[in-house]
Structure formats: C-alpha cells, structure tokens
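User: Predict the structure for this protein chain, please.
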Amino acid sequence: MYQALYRKWRPQTFDDVVGQEHVTSTLKRQVQTGRLSHAYLFSGTRGTGKTTCARILARAVNCEHPVDGNPCNQCAACRGILDESVLDVVELDAASHNGVDDVRALRDEAVFSPASVKKRVYIIDEAHSLATSSMAFNALLKILEEPPEHVMFILCTTAPQKILPTIVSRCQRHSFGRIEPDAIAARLLYVAGQEKMDLTADAAALLARMADGGMRDALSLLDQCAAGEHIDEAAVLSAMGLAGSRRTAELLDAVAAGDTERALRGFAALWQDGKEPAGILDELAGLMRDVLLLQVAPKGGEALLSGIYDLKTLRRFADKIPGARLMDGMRAIRAADTGGSDPRRAAEMCLVELCVPETGDSLQGLKNRVAKLEAALQSGAALSAPAPEAKDAPAPEDIPAPRKDVPAKEPAPAEDAPPWYTDEDAPPADATASEAEIERLYAPAPAAEAPAPAEPIPAAPPADAPAAEGVWEALVAGLHGRMDMGAYAMLKTPTQVSGTATADTLTVRFATPIAKMMLGTPAVMGLMQEQLRAIAGHEMRIVFTEGGPDGQPVKPDMAKLEALSKFGNIKFE
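Assistant: Here is the predicted structure, written as structure tokens:
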C-alpha cells in the first residue's frame, strides 16, 4: 500500500531532523551524558518536528546501543517502539483524551514499572487541549512535579500560551522555529531524487515558500504534484489550483492603472466562476503584501514571500506602485465589510476606492485630492469665472447728468467683491423674529441716492451664442444631482427663486431670506458659473438680488406666521 511521503520520510534520528539543530544538539548531549529531564515541553508551529523529536527521544532513552545520542533503530527496544509493539511508550492525543478521568488513569498507570524497556514514556500531543478542563491539568500537576524515576513526559503543543504556568515551570521547554525555505527546498530535492521524481530547483523553492516553514506541509505538497513526470513551477501552480493567481495579478494591474471598469469586470468574472468576494480581496491583499515586501527588502525579502506569484510579476508591480498606496490598499481591504449582508457590493466599493483613492477617506485619498486641487490652481483654473474685461470708460465730462424723472439705477457691485450675498445677513438659528423684523428682512434694498458709476461692459458673446430665452430653465435642469437635494428643491421652486438672463448677465432673485441663505453662497455661485459656461458657450455674469419673479418685494404671510407660532418651538414676538 502506498505510504504518504511525509510518513515515509519521517526522520528516524536527530541527525535527520532539518532546521532544528538548536533542539536536536541539546537532546543528543543529554542522552549521551544521561542528564535527562523527567518532563519536556516541545512548542512550535505545525509540521516543524515536535512529535518526530518526541518519538526519537523516546527511542533514544530506551536504546540498548545509542550512537552519539541517536537511537540505533536496530535493537529490540527501538524496533518494538517503531512497530508500536512496546506498550511502555504511550502516545496520547490530548484533543480527544482531555477529560479528568483520562488523566487520572494515566497517573495511576504511571506508577508501574516498564515491562520491556528502561523508561515509560508518555507523549501527549496537542497538550494545550487539556486547558478545556482545568481539573485535568490539576490531576497532571502532581505527577509532573514528583514523577517516578522510570517515567518521562513529553508534551507537544502549538499553543504554549494556553498551558498553565505551573505546568510549564515543571518542564524543560524547547521551541521549534519555522524551517528556512532553503533547507526545505534542499530536503525536497533529496526526497524527489530518492523517489525518482523530476523536480526542478525553482519548483522546489516555490513549494518551500508555500509550506510556510513546515516540512510536513512541503512533503504533502510534493506528494500532490507527483502525478506529473516533470515537476516545474507551472506544474506546481496547476496542481495547487493557483492558476487564478494570474487573474489576481490582472486585477491588481487594473487597480494600479486606475482602470475601474476593467477592475470591476475582472472581479465580476471571478465572482461568476464561484470565487467568494472575501477570498478575492484576500488574494489581492496577499499579492500587495508580497509586492510591498519586495519593495522594502529587495534582497532578503524573497524568503518571506508567499510563493504564489513569480518574482518577475512582483518586481513589475514593485516598480510602478508606490509603497504608500499598497499600504492604503491593504487597509481598505481590511476595512471592507465583506462579511455583511451584501459582500459583493462591499467588495465592489472597495475596488472602486482602490482604483480611485481620492474617493476614500484615507490619508492617501486626502493627499490625492489636495494634489489635484494644487494642479488645478497651478494651471490657472478657478472655481468661479473671472470678471469680464471692461472697455475704456468715457471721460467724466462725457457722462450725462441724471434725469430727475427717471429712478436711480441700483449700484453695481464693486469689481473686487463677489456679486453675491454672504451669510452674515442671515439671522441666528435660535433668534425670534418680530413683525417689524420680518418686514425689514423682506424689504428690498434701498435705491441709491446718487447715480451709479459706469458699469464695465462684459465681453461680447460669440456670434453663435444661443439666445437668452430658456437659459434659467436649462441652468436649473443642468444642476440636478450636482448639489444638495434640499438646496436644489429650493432652487427649482419659482416662488422661492427665479432668474432672468440677457446675452451676458443672469439675474437671480430670492423671494425669501431662507432662499438667500441657502443659495446665495460662493459654492452655488461656482456651480452656476460652470453650468452657464457650458450652456452659453462663453462667460456670463451672475447678479444676486431680492424679490419675486416679477421683481417686486414679497410680503410675508402674517396669517401663516401666526399659525406657526402655536407650536412650542416657533415663537414670534
């Protein structure tokens, strides 16, 4: 019957253990000198050799002819332990034997002398599982503190922090680190040579990186790739089901180019193929992580890579994506709520933010927005249109005297001041208004006593400029969706705001103080200037004033005001 590679090539001596020399050299010296502890604690990640070293140590302390601290594996004791016919070496899985009764049975059995070997050895795998029952640890505590001379305990765990400190303090602890990829690759090439497999060095290095420091995982991956005659990088990626990594690289390429449409199409294709949104973003974050590691550690960072992506692809991304954007991208992916009710929408929003960072609220997004504003200012763009150039003003003696039977013209705004109202005229939010105060707010501006100075004449519109009719209606329609909905609702209400246009000037009238306060702002002015430029094809001046559609002042409806005063939060004095 076929035996898995990780079982067939399990080390049989301390010298065969790869990457844990700091542990095996200590254990060999203790076996040689006879200075053995009664309890050991082996801790480390999966597949690094904890249980293997425990079994080798169990044979070494019972071997009849040890060789430099290693078991000979030829004597009766070694052969009996290897074929599990010696009952004095017991291996327990604490995950399934974590009850207090199991530990009590072990404690009661330990007092008996071994039948066929020198020491009774208990190997407790996944010892941290005893933490589910504090009574089980307490039952083990006494015999660990004062065990019989013929008993040895070896506790193996991947989570030493879960074991009680009182247990740890009674054990000799050895920590098993992750095995270096180079050591794993060398072992894989040796095993492949013995198994008559055609394994390339690049494929061995790729498998070593994918194993994440575990020799058992590396041998299992090699076993999975053994179906083909020739095992190279392409065969490994195909056998591991990682051919989709190229599609993830295409997704990052779209993100780097800011091509939102291509990124969303790529995501939709992966989603249609059955990929989960969280998994897609996780793979994208893993690729970003590899690129960032290659940027910050171009020489030594290769050993830290996941191994899913080839170095050529990673270097290409490292050259064109800034590290700050990679960091912000990983933060955005981590913040994406793909575990909610609509993970697909959350992933799509995350991709949009990755493609266009200024749409997000991250620091990098803010920097991008500031950079765009600075570029606009440097290019001469402005939020509002400049004032039209004035023609040469006539000499003072050429200006005719004003006629007494003609009303004085309303003075034009100064050239260095914006032709709109500020919010300083608006009353405080918590103020109460009297009838006289309401009359004052609704009253039109007083007519000028003196004639206005000559007003600059705007630049003449182009010959093909559209007529002034319908400009206001086109302006209101064009601002839909570009401003606050409440302000837009006020703008399109004729009883609140109205406008008339000539060839070069748009006059906007506010019928109420609320309309003036909401719409007579520089922000609205900028939007109107931009939209008017698109409608008329040339610059137009905007003048804000007060009054109804007919230009006459609007009187307040005192009956409605009295009705409103019945409510406790509205008061008129």
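Confidence is low (pLDDT under 50) at residues 382-388, 412-427, 450-467.
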